[in-house]
Amino acid sequence: MAQLYQRSYTRRELAAHTGQLSQFAGVRLMTLDDGVERGVRMLEFRTGSGLRFTVMVDRAMDIADCEHNGRAVGWHSPSGFQNPALHQYEGEGGLAWFRAMSGLIVTCGLDHILFMDEDDATQYNYGPKKTVKSSLHGRVCTIPARLTGYGESWDGDQCTLWAEGIVAQSTVFGEDLHLIRRIEATVGGDDIRLTDRVMNHGFYRTPHMYCYHINVGHPILAEGARYVAPIKDVVWAAHAGDDYQKQNVGYRTMPAPQMNFDEQVWQHDMAPDADGKVKVALVNDAIGFGFAVETLKSQFPAMYEWQNLQAGHYALGIEPSTNHVYGKQFARERDELIWLEHGDERRYDTTLRILPDAEAVRAYCSRIADVTPAPEVDYPVPSGLFPKIVRD
Prior knowledge:
Elements: E1 2-4, E2 7-9, H1 11-16, E3 26-31, E4 41-46, E5 51-56, E6 62-68, E7 71-72, E8 105-108, E9 117-120, E10 131-134, E11 146-155, E12 158-170, E13 176-186, E14 191-200, E15 206-208, E16 211-216, E17 226-228, E18 231-237, E19 264-270, E20 277-284, E21 289-296, E22 302-308, E23 315-321, H2 328-333, E24 338-340, E25 345-355, H3 358-371
Antiparallel strand pairs: 1-2, 3-4, 4-5, 5-6, 6-7, 8-16, 9-10, 11-12, 12-13, 13-14, 14-25, 15-24, 16-23, 17-20, 18-19, 19-22, 20-21, 21-25, 22-23
């Protein structure tokens, strides 16, 4: 049954109270029409619980806006939701990706993630193409999707809002990878369910790497906000080779916006729960509000925490990844790089969860703590021990 307005409704009862479900909840297609965002198709989801989010059809069906009862969750960067036609993938030495980075989710992949790379291309059997050059975090996030459907679906008295699309990262004499993405939310619910399948549509053996850059902003991110996760080990930290504590920001507790902040990135080895899920949250106890990400350890064996606490940016990233932070060559050397033959696919099942009040925050943090206790110091010394990734 639909849980709305402090009561339960059957499908019949809900229909009796309105001419269209869209009065309470729904998903609709619209197009942005100004500035760098002009021409970008967008799906707006409203579940009726206070959860509203938008899906950028023309940006790999990534999630852009996200809010709950008017309180922002998803991060907006200075770049805005730029139309892909304006994007220069290889610009700025491979760092032009930042000019298209904004929103709750920015998908990274499909054949490359992490920093710039030049990799052997002999598998594509084309003499002039000796190597493949990849910019930061890959190409996929600025590729428009072919929207295959969206709407509402009833199963008895439960209604699911949904959208599906196909994002094709394809070229001649190179990769032909398809991302088939389905996004769902339940009427009356506070969760977003993301199901991705990455398939090799071509006939060349092709590498595959995948990561979600899930970006949370203010007011969940605020002075005193806590990063809560089942951390077995702190594997790596970008800033550990220098003065590890020079910015006075550890992994656990967030400060207010900073001036001249150097980004900090951590890789944690997470403990899954009994169902194989890794649960990570950012919570603001002062306002009783939080956001959680649930992934499967078997699908995303690595997890990064990105701290961009610079004033005017101010975001925290929760980043599940198929590979360790050292990237493609490191994965090749350790025989951890995923290779897809024709028709092969990888599936990724992720839940994004709003924690709407203090009780939900308390209960969720308790469930994480029950899996394994996280380090109780702000600056745990990285072990440098990258667990072997074994694929199914």
